[in-house]
Amino acid sequence: MNGQELTYLNRAIELAEEALEAGDEPFGSVLVSAEGDVLAEDRNRIAGGDATQHPEKVDGPVAGLDARVHALHQRRHTGRG
What we know:
Blueprint: H1 3-21, E1 28-32, E2 38-43, H2 55-63, H3 66-78
Antiparallel strand pairs: 1-2
Helix pairs in contact: 2-3
């Protein structure tokens, strides 16, 4: 892992900490282009009762990956998808 990747990882951890402080599960997500530009970032926002407010639901559409990200998430959490 290079220094720039560590910066992105640390930001994802910060977002996860923000989520935890807000009563959410501690997940953060940072979407980065191949050139190193941050395209989107978010944290879990499910404490309000909407279980679809995962960070990958925000980052995925930005990358044009919404359906694939959702399917991967489903497989990881339910074993289906």
